[in-house]
Design goal:
Elements lengths: L15 E4 L3 H6 L6 E2 L5 H13 L2 H24 L8 E4 L5 H13 L4 E2 L3 H15 L5 E6 L6 H10 L3 E3 L1 H5 L17 H14 L5 E5 L4 E2 L2 E2 L2 H7 L3 E7 L1 H11 L1 H5 L1 H8 L8 H12 L3 H20 L11 E5 L4 H19 L1
Parallel strand pairs: 1-2, 1-3, 3-4, 5-7, 5-10, 6-7, 10-11
Antiparallel strand pairs: 8-9
Helix pairs in contact: 2-3, 5-8, 6-15, 10-14, 12-13, 13-14
Length: 353
């Protein structure tokens, strides 16, 4: 008996979402909350695909069916035997074909109300792309700007602790957004998974309330911001953090303390700036690093690289930058950042009153 296949809109009606694609496909992107129960692992999928191309579809289907049956049997024993009769899982593969169909057929034969997602992951991805255009247009963004070392990400986190809606793009991208922004031991997520996580946060926000976000370029490390999102952010209300140079130097020494533990890593990262600065400047930075003069290297990097770069780009990308509300501070300690967040909230509420 045929049954109507569920669509992306029906996802909330299911108890569990099961992604039967290979672990590699799952790692690249998946529906949030889904568990991975591959009916073919990465090596098996490659083996079947090779057989399909080099021998025949018939031979590939025979091998594929045997492997899929073995894997589904293992998942049943290891993950599903304790599920009650009322359990209602949603199954999906790449495009809603044989892989998800095989598991759905078996689970329904057992007696569970399993659904096979119409269009599979491709339908979910299409939904994500569409919503990343539509959803940002519904948001009111408040953009936090300021030169490098102004503790913008920490400020966003303080705003979130104080009850505000915050889209922390650098945390989602696992990168601090500059040539020195790579985080040790934290690889950046795949592009598609980043976009899924961004959408998940946007969908949770109340459009009637502002969303605080940091002023970003189009890329954070190797991650590209969705076009609809960056264009909407650049139309947002602007707030400018005017932190003293001394406060920024102190903050950056703490925020990038892993470079103090590994000076050679800092030197390697600075090689990316060699085409932008004279040999004299590069040699001076190397001397400061070798001497362990961390306040000196931070201050010099700000004065000779980051601050001039920021001044050149300050008014170019954000339509309302000229009307930004400025908050000056000489304290970027934890307490100082919390105080700054409270002042921003109070100021905006006063403006809206």
């Amino acid at each position: 008996m045929k049954y109507a296949r569920p669509t992306v809109a029906d996802i909330p009606a299911y108890d569990e979402i099961i992604d039967v694609r290979s672990p590699g496909e799952f790692a690249e992107d998946h529906i949030p909350g889904a568990i991975n129960c591959p009916v073919l692992d990465d090596a098996q999928r490659a083996e079947v695909g090779t057989l399909y191309k080099q021998v025949s579809p018939f031979e590939a289907k025979k091998l594929g069916a045997a492997l899929v049956s073995e894997n589904i049997a293992r998942h049943l024993k290891e993950r599903f035997l304790n599920k009650p009769k009322q359990w209602k899982p949603l199954i999906y593969c790449w495009r809603g074909g044989d892989r998800s169909g095989s598991m759905t057929t078996i689970l329904r034969a057992i007696g569970w109300s399993a659904g096979q997602l119409d269009g599979g992951y491709k339908a979910w991805r299409g939904h994500t792309v569409e919503r990343l255009i539509a959803r940002p247009a519904e948001m009111q963004f408040v953009v936090i700007g300021g030169p490098t070392g102004s503790a913008k990400t920490r400020l966003l986190q303080a705003l979130a602790r104080q009850g505000e809606q915050v889209l922390d793009l650098e945390t989602l991208a696992s990168h601090k957004g500059s040539v020195l922004g790579t985080l040790p031991g934290q690889p950046q997520p795949p592009q598609k998974w980043f976009e899924t996580c961004v959408l998940q946060q946007l969908e949770a926000f109340d459009p009637a309330r502002p969303v605080y976000v940091e002023a970003e370029s189009r890329k954070i490390g190797r991650i590209h911001l969705p076009e609809g999102l960056i264009e909407r952010i650049r139309l947002g209300e602007c707030i400018q953090i005017d932190a003293s140079l001394d406060a920024r130097v102190t903050f950056l020494q703490d925020d990038y303390d892993y470079f103090i533990q590994d000076p050679a890593r800092l030197q390697r990262r600075l090689e990316a700036l060699r085409n932008l600065h004279s040999r004299e400047v590069m040699n001076q930075w190397e001397t400061l690093i070798q001497a362990g003069d961390w306040p000196g290297i931070v201050r010099d990097l700000l004065e000779k690289h980051y601050d001039p770069l920021y001044r050149r780009s300050q008014d170019r990308n954000f339509a309302r930058q000229a009307d930004a509300t400025v908050f000056a501070t000489d304290d970027l300690s934890t307490v100082g950042i919390e105080r700054l967040a409270a002042a921003i909230i109070q100021s905006r509420r006063a403006q809206m009153a």
